[in-house]
Write a structure and sequence with these properties.
It contains 15 helices and 15 strands. By secondary structure, it is of the alpha/beta class. Helix 3 packs across helix 5. The structure holds NADP nicotinamide-adenine-dinucleotide phosphate (NAP).
């Protein structure tokens, strides 16, 4: 099926999980910012909640309502067949996401999600990439703070560097934010599955074609004081560097030999030490079912930070790129990373897949690969900063 003949589907975009914490913010963003002629629907398993959400949305009378439950594959397939693009905010994706992505791959429907779960992404690649390439479906994961600022930030940084030479980019994340119930549940679930995460990654590598004539690596750096950003750099082994690795493998522009390292940037040493200790404690607690239950009980599904708390939250990702004798300092920055900006990134990525003139891609693809310039332009227009802070010769001091 070619992408062109999907215009006969009733909706351009279906937002699944529209009643959840991020789902509601995304529905509100779409109602306020999407083109007036967007044909879209909210979907989920509780029709009463969906109707109440629709009534609250500006222009809600034009928005469709679709019922689907993650435990009912036939309903998920019908949902996929009704849309050109399905955006799902129903997580944890390892628990709830498998059937919907299968339906989208099989029906040639573009799919995007907010997962930060590496195991889910690797399982989807092994199970559905081939089918999605056959049908033309684009499967795009991590379309929120995980991993849009990092993936598009590296893409943007690479564009400031010379072509055809080895390149290195380091990313330094600072974010001030609180968790929602859905994020906490997804993180704890993934932390508890260490061995299965590694097994899924190994299986993926067995299925991935070899990269010939080019090298791409994303080593986990060691903690260090990074003079170039004036902060302690703590390695951050999240999904983000893996997404960057896949963009670099897919796009020749990243050069013949590309390396990316991903860090949290912390200004003061005691905060850095405390951060490592806290991360270790949560990781350890997630291995023990009673401790995991206690932690996940701190926040219920649907809970999340208040509008006031979100209004005070900010993020910045600083990148230092180097290659061909040039050193470039760039930044991607915005407001509340986990929720307000995530809803914006998610909605704009969905609109980009639905309407932008994009490079021809299919199968499991990254945001940079599928939507690079178009999505960067959309996010800039929506208030997220992408800027070059400085360009210097590579040998100059910081
Ligand atoms: N940085 C990022 O990229 C980022 C940021 C935020 C969130 N996330 C991820 O996004 C996901 C959602 O987070 P959240 O805080 O919005 O979670 P949430 O508030 O718990 O929302 C979950 C949604 O799933 C729906 N749902 C639950 N069971 C279902 C079922 N059986 N069938 C159909 N729908 C079902 C819920 O419906 P009801 O409302 O009817 O219960 C709700 O709409 C999580 O995986 C989280 O990790 C990622």
């Amino acid at each position: 099926m070619s992408r062109l003949n999907r215009t006969d589907r009733p909706y351009d975009l279906v937002l699944f999980g529209a009643t959840g914490f991020v789902g509601t913010l995304t529905a509100e963003y779409l109602a306020a910012h999407a083109p007036k002629d967007l044909r879209w629907a909210v979907a989920g398993h509780d029709e009463g909640k969906l109707e109440r959400l629709r009534e609250r949305l500006p222009g809600g009378a034009e928005v469709g309502v679709l019922h689907a439950d993650v435990t009912e594959p036939a309903g998920l397939r019908a949902l996929a067949e009704h849309a050109r693009v399905v955006a799902t905010a129903v997580g944890p994706y390892l628990l709830h996401g498998g059937e919907l992505v299968a339906a989208c791959a099989d029906t040639g429907t573009d799919y995007l999600d907010l997962t930060g779960e590496p195991e889910f992404v690797d399982l989807v690649y092994v199970r559905h990439d081939t089918r999605a390439r056959e049908t033309g479906a684009r499967l795009v994961h991590a379309c929120g703070f995980d991993s849009v600022p990092h993936d598009l930030g590296v893409y943007y940084t690479v564009q400031q560097l010379p072509e055809g030479v080895p390149l290195t980019v380091d990313g330094y994340v600072t974010a001030d934010a609180a968790f929602s119930g859905g994020t906490l549940a997804s993180a704890l679930n993934q932390f508890a599955r260490g061995r299965r995460v590694l097994a899924a990654a190994r299986d993926r590598r067995r299925h991935e074609p070899r990269l010939t004539g080019r090298r791409v690596s994303v080593p986990t750096g060691a903690p260090r004081f990074a003079e170039e950003v004036g902060a302690w750099a703590l390695p951050l082994p999240t999904l983000d560097p893996q997404i960057v690795r896949r963009s670099a493998r897919a796009l020749e522009r990243y050069g013949p030999d590309f390396r990316y390292r991903h860090y949290a940037a912390v200004r003061h040493l005691p905060v850095a030490v405390g951060g490592i200790a806290a991360a270790g404690a949560v990781l350890a607690a997630a291995q023990l079912p009673p401790a995991r239950r206690w932690l996940s009980g701190r926040l219920q599904p649907g809970d999340g930070p208040s509008a006031e708390r979100r209004a005070r939250s900010r993020f910045a990702v600083r990148f230092v790129g180097e290659g061909g004798g040039r050193r470039v300092f760039t930044e991607v920055a915005g407001g509340d990373p986990g929720y307000d900006e995530t809803a914006k990134m998610f909605a704009e990525a969905a609109l980009s897949l639905a309407f932008d003139d994009l490079p021809p891609t299919a199968g499991q693809v990254t945001t940079a690969q599928a939507m690079g310039d178009a999505l960067t332009g959309r996010l800039r227009a929506a208030g997220i900063t992408f800027r070059v802070a400085a360009i210097r010769p590579a040998s100059s001091p910081v």
